[in-house]
Write a structure and sequence with these properties.
alpha/beta, Rossmann fold, eight-stranded parallel sheet, three-stranded mixed sheet, NAD-dependent epimerase/dehydratase domain-containing protein, NAD(P)-bd_dom_sf
Length: 365
Protein backbone atom coordinates (compact mmCIF):
# COMPACT_ATOMS: atom_id res chain seq x y z
CA UNK A 1 0.00 0.00 0.00
CA UNK A 2 1.02 3.59 -0.41
CA UNK A 3 3.00 3.12 -3.63
CA UNK A 4 2.05 2.88 -7.28
CA UNK A 5 2.26 -0.61 -8.69
CA UNK A 6 3.31 -1.38 -12.25
CA UNK A 7 0.62 -2.62 -14.63
CA UNK A 8 2.45 -5.94 -14.90
CA UNK A 9 2.41 -6.35 -11.12
CA UNK A 10 -1.30 -5.50 -10.95
CA UNK A 11 -2.12 -8.07 -13.61
CA UNK A 12 -0.04 -10.69 -11.81
CA UNK A 13 -1.83 -10.01 -8.52
CA UNK A 14 -5.23 -10.28 -10.21
CA UNK A 15 -4.25 -13.61 -11.74
CA UNK A 16 -3.06 -14.82 -8.33
CA UNK A 17 -6.39 -13.77 -6.81
CA UNK A 18 -8.24 -15.71 -9.50
CA UNK A 19 -6.20 -18.82 -8.74
CA UNK A 20 -6.86 -18.43 -5.03
CA UNK A 21 -10.59 -18.01 -5.62
CA UNK A 22 -10.61 -21.19 -7.69
CA UNK A 23 -8.83 -23.04 -4.89
CA UNK A 24 -11.32 -21.73 -2.34
CA UNK A 25 -14.26 -23.03 -4.30
CA UNK A 26 -15.27 -19.70 -5.79
CA UNK A 27 -15.65 -21.31 -9.19
CA UNK A 28 -17.91 -24.15 -8.03
CA UNK A 29 -21.04 -22.50 -9.31
CA UNK A 30 -24.36 -24.26 -9.71
CA UNK A 31 -25.52 -25.01 -13.24
CA UNK A 32 -28.49 -22.74 -12.89
CA UNK A 33 -26.38 -19.62 -12.21
CA UNK A 34 -27.99 -17.11 -14.54
CA UNK A 35 -28.32 -13.89 -12.59
CA UNK A 36 -25.38 -11.70 -11.65
CA UNK A 37 -25.78 -8.74 -9.33
CA UNK A 38 -22.06 -8.12 -9.53
CA UNK A 39 -19.54 -6.07 -7.62
CA UNK A 40 -20.28 -2.40 -7.17
CA UNK A 41 -17.64 -0.04 -5.90
CA UNK A 42 -18.56 3.11 -4.00
CA UNK A 43 -17.16 5.41 -1.34
CA UNK A 44 -20.46 6.14 0.43
CA UNK A 45 -23.05 3.86 -1.11
CA UNK A 46 -25.26 1.75 1.15
CA UNK A 47 -27.04 -1.04 -0.67
CA UNK A 48 -30.38 -2.52 0.34
CA UNK A 49 -30.66 -6.32 0.36
CA UNK A 50 -33.77 -8.41 0.79
CA UNK A 51 -34.60 -9.90 4.18
CA UNK A 52 -33.68 -13.35 2.92
CA UNK A 53 -30.12 -12.27 2.23
CA UNK A 54 -28.11 -11.55 5.37
CA UNK A 55 -25.60 -8.80 4.76
CA UNK A 56 -22.17 -9.00 6.41
CA UNK A 57 -18.99 -6.96 6.07
CA UNK A 58 -15.40 -8.18 5.73
CA UNK A 59 -12.47 -5.85 6.43
CA UNK A 60 -9.35 -6.40 4.32
CA UNK A 61 -11.62 -8.34 2.01
CA UNK A 62 -9.13 -8.48 -0.85
CA UNK A 63 -6.43 -10.08 1.29
CA UNK A 64 -5.69 -13.78 0.89
CA UNK A 65 -7.73 -14.77 3.94
CA UNK A 66 -10.31 -12.07 3.31
CA UNK A 67 -11.13 -13.40 -0.15
CA UNK A 68 -11.39 -16.95 1.16
CA UNK A 69 -13.86 -15.80 3.83
CA UNK A 70 -15.84 -13.78 1.29
CA UNK A 71 -16.23 -16.78 -0.99
CA UNK A 72 -17.14 -19.11 1.87
CA UNK A 73 -19.83 -16.67 2.98
CA UNK A 74 -21.13 -16.31 -0.56
CA UNK A 75 -21.49 -20.06 -1.00
CA UNK A 76 -23.50 -20.11 2.24
CA UNK A 77 -25.94 -17.53 0.89
CA UNK A 78 -24.69 -14.29 2.43
CA UNK A 79 -24.40 -10.94 0.72
CA UNK A 80 -20.99 -9.45 1.42
CA UNK A 81 -19.71 -5.90 1.69
CA UNK A 82 -15.94 -5.71 1.28
CA UNK A 83 -13.96 -2.83 2.77
CA UNK A 84 -11.14 -1.51 0.59
CA UNK A 85 -9.00 1.52 1.33
CA UNK A 86 -7.44 2.32 -2.04
CA UNK A 87 -8.31 2.51 -5.73
CA UNK A 88 -5.97 -0.34 -6.65
CA UNK A 89 -7.99 -2.83 -4.60
CA UNK A 90 -11.21 -1.56 -6.20
CA UNK A 91 -9.67 -2.14 -9.61
CA UNK A 92 -8.78 -5.70 -8.66
CA UNK A 93 -12.37 -6.38 -7.66
CA UNK A 94 -13.70 -4.85 -10.87
CA UNK A 95 -11.39 -7.16 -12.83
CA UNK A 96 -12.71 -10.17 -10.90
CA UNK A 97 -16.26 -9.02 -11.71
CA UNK A 98 -15.44 -8.72 -15.40
CA UNK A 99 -13.87 -12.18 -15.47
CA UNK A 100 -16.83 -13.68 -13.58
CA UNK A 101 -14.65 -15.13 -10.83
CA UNK A 102 -16.90 -13.91 -7.99
CA UNK A 103 -20.29 -14.38 -9.63
CA UNK A 104 -23.17 -15.91 -7.64
CA UNK A 105 -26.87 -16.25 -8.30
CA UNK A 106 -28.45 -15.39 -4.96
CA UNK A 107 -26.17 -12.86 -3.32
CA UNK A 108 -24.24 -9.74 -4.16
CA UNK A 109 -20.91 -8.14 -3.37
CA UNK A 110 -20.18 -4.50 -2.91
CA UNK A 111 -16.81 -2.87 -2.35
CA UNK A 112 -16.92 0.16 -0.06
CA UNK A 113 -14.08 2.60 0.48
CA UNK A 114 -13.36 3.03 4.20
CA UNK A 115 -10.35 3.68 6.41
CA UNK A 116 -9.58 1.45 9.38
CA UNK A 117 -8.06 4.53 11.02
CA UNK A 118 -11.38 6.43 10.88
CA UNK A 119 -14.27 5.29 13.08
CA UNK A 120 -16.91 7.35 11.27
CA UNK A 121 -15.80 5.90 7.94
CA UNK A 122 -16.26 2.40 9.35
CA UNK A 123 -19.65 3.22 10.88
CA UNK A 124 -20.87 4.29 7.46
CA UNK A 125 -19.46 1.13 5.86
CA UNK A 126 -21.11 -1.13 8.46
CA UNK A 127 -24.59 0.40 8.09
CA UNK A 128 -27.14 -2.33 7.38
CA UNK A 129 -24.71 -5.18 8.09
CA UNK A 130 -25.73 -7.85 10.60
CA UNK A 131 -22.19 -9.08 11.16
CA UNK A 132 -18.60 -7.91 10.75
CA UNK A 133 -15.50 -10.02 10.10
CA UNK A 134 -12.32 -8.13 11.01
CA UNK A 135 -9.42 -9.96 9.35
CA UNK A 136 -6.80 -7.20 9.77
CA UNK A 137 -4.34 -8.04 7.00
CA UNK A 138 -1.40 -5.70 7.58
CA UNK A 139 1.70 -5.90 5.40
CA UNK A 140 5.04 -4.16 5.24
CA UNK A 141 4.39 -1.16 2.92
CA UNK A 142 7.91 -1.45 1.49
CA UNK A 143 7.21 -5.01 0.38
CA UNK A 144 9.89 -6.39 2.69
CA UNK A 145 9.75 -9.05 5.36
CA UNK A 146 9.20 -8.16 8.97
CA UNK A 147 6.58 -6.74 11.29
CA UNK A 148 7.66 -3.75 13.32
CA UNK A 149 6.61 -2.30 16.66
CA UNK A 150 4.83 0.52 14.84
CA UNK A 151 2.82 -1.99 12.80
CA UNK A 152 1.71 -3.59 16.06
CA UNK A 153 0.43 -0.21 17.22
CA UNK A 154 -1.48 0.26 13.96
CA UNK A 155 -3.04 -3.17 14.41
CA UNK A 156 -4.29 -2.27 17.89
CA UNK A 157 -5.79 1.04 16.77
CA UNK A 158 -7.55 -0.66 13.86
CA UNK A 159 -9.05 -3.26 16.19
CA UNK A 160 -10.27 -0.54 18.55
CA UNK A 161 -11.78 1.43 15.68
CA UNK A 162 -13.59 -1.58 14.21
CA UNK A 163 -15.07 -2.52 17.57
CA UNK A 164 -16.07 1.08 18.31
CA UNK A 165 -17.74 1.31 14.89
CA UNK A 166 -19.56 -1.98 15.46
CA UNK A 167 -20.88 -0.72 18.79
CA UNK A 168 -22.16 2.46 17.14
CA UNK A 169 -23.92 0.63 14.29
CA UNK A 170 -27.40 -0.56 15.35
CA UNK A 171 -27.65 -3.23 12.66
CA UNK A 172 -24.43 -5.03 13.70
CA UNK A 173 -25.31 -7.93 15.98
CA UNK A 174 -22.15 -10.05 15.94
CA UNK A 175 -18.45 -9.56 15.25
CA UNK A 176 -15.74 -12.11 14.44
CA UNK A 177 -12.13 -10.99 14.86
CA UNK A 178 -9.21 -12.92 13.40
CA UNK A 179 -6.49 -13.06 16.04
CA UNK A 180 -3.59 -15.54 16.11
CA UNK A 181 -2.47 -18.67 17.91
CA UNK A 182 0.53 -16.55 18.94
CA UNK A 183 -1.75 -14.85 21.47
CA UNK A 184 -1.96 -18.16 23.33
CA UNK A 185 1.43 -19.87 23.29
CA UNK A 186 4.17 -17.45 24.39
CA UNK A 187 4.21 -18.12 28.14
CA UNK A 188 7.16 -17.48 30.44
CA UNK A 189 8.30 -20.76 31.97
CA UNK A 190 11.02 -19.00 33.98
CA UNK A 191 8.48 -17.05 36.04
CA UNK A 192 5.78 -19.73 36.03
CA UNK A 193 7.53 -23.12 36.00
CA UNK A 194 4.30 -25.07 36.62
CA UNK A 195 2.56 -23.98 33.44
CA UNK A 196 -0.40 -26.15 32.33
CA UNK A 197 0.79 -28.58 29.63
CA UNK A 198 -2.24 -27.91 27.40
CA UNK A 199 -2.37 -24.70 25.33
CA UNK A 200 -5.92 -23.88 24.30
CA UNK A 201 -8.49 -21.08 24.04
CA UNK A 202 -8.05 -20.26 27.73
CA UNK A 203 -4.31 -19.64 27.37
CA UNK A 204 -2.88 -16.16 26.95
CA UNK A 205 0.63 -15.18 25.90
CA UNK A 206 2.81 -13.19 28.28
CA UNK A 207 3.06 -9.70 26.76
CA UNK A 208 6.25 -8.80 28.64
CA UNK A 209 7.94 -11.94 27.31
CA UNK A 210 6.90 -11.06 23.76
CA UNK A 211 8.22 -7.51 24.14
CA UNK A 212 11.56 -8.69 25.56
CA UNK A 213 12.03 -10.99 22.60
CA UNK A 214 10.73 -8.40 20.09
CA UNK A 215 7.95 -10.70 18.93
CA UNK A 216 6.05 -7.73 17.53
CA UNK A 217 3.57 -9.78 15.50
CA UNK A 218 2.53 -11.60 18.66
CA UNK A 219 2.41 -8.30 20.56
CA UNK A 220 0.21 -6.70 17.90
CA UNK A 221 -2.23 -9.61 17.78
CA UNK A 222 -2.30 -9.93 21.58
CA UNK A 223 -2.99 -6.26 22.23
CA UNK A 224 -5.48 -6.04 19.36
CA UNK A 225 -7.48 -9.01 20.63
CA UNK A 226 -7.49 -7.75 24.22
CA UNK A 227 -8.59 -4.31 23.01
CA UNK A 228 -11.45 -5.92 21.08
CA UNK A 229 -12.59 -7.86 24.14
CA UNK A 230 -12.40 -4.76 26.34
CA UNK A 231 -14.65 -2.71 24.06
CA UNK A 232 -17.03 -5.63 23.42
CA UNK A 233 -17.58 -6.10 27.16
CA UNK A 234 -17.97 -2.39 27.82
CA UNK A 235 -20.47 -1.90 24.96
CA UNK A 236 -22.31 -5.21 25.21
CA UNK A 237 -21.27 -6.30 21.72
CA UNK A 238 -21.34 -9.99 20.92
CA UNK A 239 -17.81 -11.03 19.88
CA UNK A 240 -15.86 -14.17 19.12
CA UNK A 241 -12.18 -14.36 18.22
CA UNK A 242 -10.48 -17.03 16.13
CA UNK A 243 -6.82 -17.77 16.86
CA UNK A 244 -5.33 -19.54 13.82
CA UNK A 245 -1.97 -21.16 13.45
CA UNK A 246 0.32 -20.26 10.56
CA UNK A 247 -1.94 -19.84 7.52
CA UNK A 248 -1.01 -21.95 4.50
CA UNK A 249 -2.49 -22.43 1.05
CA UNK A 250 -1.73 -21.95 -2.65
CA UNK A 251 0.86 -19.20 -3.14
CA UNK A 252 0.29 -17.91 0.39
CA UNK A 253 3.90 -17.00 1.15
CA UNK A 254 4.27 -15.10 -2.11
CA UNK A 255 1.23 -13.00 -1.21
CA UNK A 256 1.96 -12.61 2.51
CA UNK A 257 5.71 -12.67 3.25
CA UNK A 258 5.33 -10.22 6.14
CA UNK A 259 2.79 -12.30 8.05
CA UNK A 260 4.56 -15.60 7.37
CA UNK A 261 8.03 -14.49 8.41
CA UNK A 262 6.72 -12.50 11.36
CA UNK A 263 4.75 -15.51 12.59
CA UNK A 264 7.83 -17.70 12.37
CA UNK A 265 9.99 -15.47 14.54
CA UNK A 266 10.66 -17.88 17.39
CA UNK A 267 9.77 -20.79 15.10
CA UNK A 268 12.50 -23.03 16.50
CA UNK A 269 11.14 -22.62 20.03
CA UNK A 270 7.57 -23.29 18.86
CA UNK A 271 8.69 -26.45 17.04
CA UNK A 272 10.72 -27.65 20.03
CA UNK A 273 7.80 -27.15 22.42
CA UNK A 274 5.20 -28.79 20.16
CA UNK A 275 3.44 -25.49 19.48
CA UNK A 276 4.08 -24.92 15.76
CA UNK A 277 0.76 -25.47 14.01
CA UNK A 278 -0.63 -24.55 10.59
CA UNK A 279 -4.08 -24.17 9.10
CA UNK A 280 -5.18 -24.29 5.48
CA UNK A 281 -6.81 -21.03 4.42
CA UNK A 282 -9.95 -22.82 3.21
CA UNK A 283 -10.43 -24.60 6.53
CA UNK A 284 -9.87 -21.32 8.35
CA UNK A 285 -12.43 -19.52 6.20
CA UNK A 286 -14.94 -22.31 6.86
CA UNK A 287 -14.32 -21.97 10.60
CA UNK A 288 -15.06 -18.25 10.42
CA UNK A 289 -18.38 -18.87 8.69
CA UNK A 290 -19.45 -21.68 11.00
CA UNK A 291 -18.51 -19.84 14.21
CA UNK A 292 -20.40 -16.76 13.00
CA UNK A 293 -23.53 -18.82 12.36
CA UNK A 294 -23.26 -20.53 15.72
CA UNK A 295 -23.12 -17.14 17.47
CA UNK A 296 -26.89 -17.13 17.07
CA UNK A 297 -26.95 -20.16 19.34
CA UNK A 298 -24.03 -21.18 21.56
CA UNK A 299 -20.76 -19.87 20.10
CA UNK A 300 -18.83 -17.59 22.46
CA UNK A 301 -15.33 -16.52 23.46
CA UNK A 302 -12.12 -17.63 21.76
CA UNK A 303 -11.47 -20.49 19.32
CA UNK A 304 -8.08 -21.99 18.52
CA UNK A 305 -7.90 -23.09 14.87
CA UNK A 306 -5.32 -25.40 13.28
CA UNK A 307 -5.34 -28.58 11.22
CA UNK A 308 -1.70 -29.68 11.47
CA UNK A 309 0.94 -29.68 14.19
CA UNK A 310 4.56 -29.81 13.00
CA UNK A 311 6.11 -32.46 15.26
CA UNK A 312 9.09 -34.05 13.50
CA UNK A 313 11.99 -32.73 11.41
CA UNK A 314 10.66 -34.16 8.14
CA UNK A 315 7.43 -32.22 8.64
CA UNK A 316 9.39 -29.08 9.44
CA UNK A 317 11.44 -29.45 6.26
CA UNK A 318 8.31 -29.97 4.17
CA UNK A 319 6.68 -26.90 5.68
CA UNK A 320 9.80 -24.81 5.06
CA UNK A 321 9.79 -25.88 1.41
CA UNK A 322 6.05 -25.28 1.13
CA UNK A 323 6.24 -21.68 2.35
CA UNK A 324 9.65 -20.86 0.90
CA UNK A 325 11.77 -20.26 4.00
CA UNK A 326 15.05 -21.85 5.13
CA UNK A 327 14.53 -25.06 7.10
CA UNK A 328 16.55 -23.70 10.03
CA UNK A 329 13.90 -21.01 10.43
CA UNK A 330 11.72 -23.79 11.85
CA UNK A 331 13.96 -26.56 13.19
CA UNK A 332 17.48 -26.10 14.54
CA UNK A 333 20.23 -28.54 13.61
CA UNK A 334 20.06 -30.25 17.00
CA UNK A 335 16.24 -30.46 17.05
CA UNK A 336 16.34 -34.26 17.12
CA UNK A 337 18.13 -34.14 20.48
CA UNK A 338 15.56 -31.96 22.24
CA UNK A 339 13.37 -34.75 23.61
CA UNK A 340 9.56 -34.87 23.62
CA UNK A 341 7.53 -31.66 23.24
CA UNK A 342 6.85 -29.76 26.44
CA UNK A 343 3.27 -28.74 25.59
CA UNK A 344 0.19 -29.95 23.71
CA UNK A 345 -2.04 -27.77 21.54
CA UNK A 346 -5.79 -28.22 21.76
CA UNK A 347 -8.51 -27.02 19.39
CA UNK A 348 -11.19 -29.15 21.02
CA UNK A 349 -13.61 -26.26 21.54
CA UNK A 350 -13.69 -25.48 17.82
CA UNK A 351 -13.86 -29.16 16.89
CA UNK A 352 -16.89 -29.63 19.10
CA UNK A 353 -18.62 -26.73 17.36
CA UNK A 354 -17.72 -28.00 13.90
CA UNK A 355 -18.84 -31.53 14.71
CA UNK A 356 -22.27 -30.22 15.71
CA UNK A 357 -22.59 -28.77 12.24
CA UNK A 358 -21.40 -31.96 10.50
CA UNK A 359 -17.97 -30.66 9.59
CA UNK A 360 -14.75 -32.59 9.91
CA UNK A 361 -12.05 -31.18 12.14
CA UNK A 362 -8.47 -31.99 13.03
CA UNK A 363 -9.10 -32.78 16.69
CA UNK A 364 -6.32 -32.61 19.24
CA UNK A 365 -7.53 -32.52 22.81
Amino acid sequence: MGFVQSEARKKMEIEEMKCMLAACGGLNRRKDDEEFQGIRASSKQVVEFSDEEELVCVTSGVSYLGLAIVNRLMTRGYSVRIIVDNEEDKEKLRELETSGEMRTSKNGIIAVMAKLAEVESLVEAFQGCHGVFHTSAFTDPAGLSGYTKSMAEIEVRASENVMEACSRTPSVRNCVVTSSLLTCLWRDITTTPELPPVVNHESWSDESLCIRNKLWYAVGKLRAEKAAWKIAKERGLKLVTICPGLITGPEYFGKNPTATIAYLKGGQEMFRDGLLATVDVMNLADAHARVFEEMKRTAYGRYVCFDRVIQVEDEAERLAKEIGVPANKIASEDASNCGPPRFVLSNKKLCNLMSRTHRSCYDRS
